[in-house]
C-alpha cells in the first residue's frame, strides 16, 4: 500500500508557494497563475517565470519556510499508516520549503519528491529532477510516474491525498482519492470516486476502519469512500 501526500494546501494549511510569492514577488505572479489554471501555459513555464520574480535572500526565505503552518493532525495520521504502508510527500512545489517546514514541525522523516530550489544572490531558481518529458499534465513533478515506481517495490493500492491541479492526473489512476479544494471539483467533473476531507484527522478516522492485516482487494477499501 502506498500513500501519496501532496504538500501545498494539503499537508500545509495554506498554499505555501502562493504565500511565498505574495510575500516576495510582485503581483504579476497572479497573472501567470491564471494563465496556468486556464491551460495557456504549462506548470513548469508558470513556476519558472514566477520564481524569476522572487527577490529575497536565503536567510529570510528559510525563516519564512519555518513559519509555514502544517496540519497538526498529520503526525498521528502518519504514525498509524506508516505501520502498514509506505508514505511519500509528492509535490509540484519546492523541495527546500517542504524539508524546512516539516523539520520545523517535527514531522517524521519520509521520502520527499519535489522540484529543487536553488538560491542565487537576492533570488531563487528551480530545476526538475522528477520531470517526465511525457507527462501530459506538463508538471515539474510527474506524480503518476513516481507512484508507478514506488508501487513496484511495495505494491498497491495507491491512495492519493491532494487538493489541486497537480493532483488531477494521478487522481484518474489512483485506487483511492481523498480530495479537497480544486481536486473535489475535478473529481466530480470526471466522475472519479473520492472522499472529501479538510484535515488528516478525518482521513485517519476512515483509514482506521480498514482491515489492513489482510490483503484486501481495492474494492473492499472503496466501501468507505462515499463522497
Q: What is the multimeric organization of the chains shown?
A: single chain
Total count of domains: 1
Briefly, what CATH class?
Alpha Beta
The succession of helices and strands, N to C, reads EHHHHHHEHEEHEHEHEHH
End-to-end separation: 22 Å
The CATH superfamily name is HAD superfamily/HAD-like
Provide the β-strand percentage band: 15-25%
Determine the CATH topology.
Rossmann fold
Shape: globular
Low-confidence stretches: 223-227
Tell me the total number of β-strands.
7
Mean pLDDT: 91
Classify the secondary structure makeup into a structural class: alpha/beta
Describe this structure in a few short sentences.
The protein is an alpha/beta fold and 227 residues long. The chain has a single domain, classed as 3-Layer(aba) Sandwich (Rossmann fold). The chain is 44% helix and 17% strand.
Describe, in plain words, how this protein is organized in 3D:
The structure is a single chain. With 227 residues, this protein is of the alpha/beta class. It has a single domain (2-214), classed as HAD superfamily/HAD-like (Rossmann fold), CATH 3.40.50.1000. 44% of the residues lie in helices and 17% in strands. The chain is built from twelve helices and seven strands. It has a seven-stranded mixed sheet with strand order 4-3-2-1-5-6-7. Helix 3 (28-37) runs antiparallel to helix 4 and helix 6 (74-81) packs parallel to helix 11. The protein is globular, with a radius of gyration of 17 Å. Residues 223-227 have low confidence and may be disordered.
Amino acid at each position: 500500500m502506498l500513500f501519496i501526500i501532496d504538500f501545498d494546501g494539503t499537508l500545509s494549511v495554506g498554499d505555501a508557494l502562493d504565500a511565498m510569492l505574495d510575500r516576495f514577488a510582485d503581483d504579476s505572479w497572479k497573472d501567470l497563475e491564471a494563465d496556468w489554471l486556464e491551460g495557456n501555459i504549462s506548470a513548469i513555464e508558470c513556476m519558472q517565470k514566477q520564481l524569476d520574480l522572487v527577490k529575497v535572500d536565503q536567510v529570510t526565505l528559510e525563516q519564512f519556510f519555518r513559519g509555514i503552518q502544517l496540519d497538526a493532525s498529520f503526525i498521528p495520521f502518519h504514525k498509524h499508516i506508516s505501520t502498514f504502508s509506505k508514505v511519500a510527500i509528492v509535490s509540484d512545489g519546492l523541495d527546500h520549503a517542504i524539508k524546512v517546514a516539516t523539520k520545523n514541525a517535527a514531522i517524521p522523516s519520509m521520502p520527499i519528491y519535489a522540484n529543487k530550489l536553488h538560491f542565487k544572490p537576492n533570488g531563487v531558481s528551480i530545476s526538475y529532477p522528477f520531470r517526465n518529458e511525457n507527462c501530459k499534465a506538463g508538471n515539474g513533478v510527474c506524480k503518476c510516474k513516481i507512484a508507478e515506481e514506488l508501487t513496484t517495490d511495495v505494491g498497491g493500492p495507491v491512495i492519493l491525498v491532494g487538493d489541486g491541479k497537480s493532483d488531477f492526473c494521478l487522481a484518474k489512476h489512483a485506487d483511492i482519492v481523498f480530495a479537497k479544494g480544486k481536486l473535489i471539483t475535478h473529481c466530480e467533473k470526471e466522475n472519479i470516486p473520492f472522499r472529501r476531507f479538510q484535515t488528516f484527522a478525518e482521513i485517519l478516522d476512515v483509514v482506521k476502519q480498514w482491515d489492513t492485516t489482510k490483503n484486501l482487494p481495492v474494492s473492499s477499501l472503496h466501501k468507505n469512500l462515499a463522497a
